[in-house]
Amino acid sequence: MLEYTSILKSRPYLYLEFKKASALKIQGLNDNDIKYKAVEENIFAVTTEARKREIASTVINRIKILDEYILDKIISGNLQTSKQLALYSILKTDRLFFEFMKEVYKEKIILKDYILKDNDFDIFFRRKAEQDEKISSWTDYTFYKLGQVYKRILTEAGFIKKVKREVQIIPQIIETEVAKHLKDIGDTAYLEAISGEAYGHI
Known about the structure:
By secondary structure, the protein is mainly α. Helices cover 64% and strands 4% of the residues. The protein contains eleven helices and two strands; from the N terminus they run αααααααααββαα. It has helices spanning 15-26, 31-40, 49-63, 68-76, 79-93, 95-110, 118-131, 133-136, 140-156, 176-184, 188-195, and strands at residues 160-163, 166-169. The chain has a two-stranded antiparallel sheet with strand order 1-2.
């Protein structure tokens, strides 16, 4: 099982960078090739050496856990499916974000409560801090930053939107073929965290 980390607070959604690196992977480039292109050719168009390496490391780490079918859907599928699968790659590589989606986002959809409040984040992080010694050592600022990044990721992925002063959840429609694939490879829990639906009978 993945360890809890707070690294996501400085490594957001990165959809365009992730998609570009996924295309290179499908073309046959390996991790070192992608890193080289990031650093020497600046394919992600950032200004500092550290940021080039950080983005490359982040997107490569997310791509590593994906199979060819999913990579192809990210590159060639419709935009919402591509964004859903980019978010799925974050769930697969960040345990705390996955648990947030499973325990908060999914539960809200099940209960038909489509408003995501600041309090929902506070309660989630407080509960995790009570359950885990490592998380309990994090500062309030870390929890604040994580909450902000979670919101930004979900907004950019099309999972939430701001309406006046409220943050509204946008329930996702998952392509049947994609849902079946995720179920077939044993990732039903991630599929359900994204969709808020049970997928026992695909």
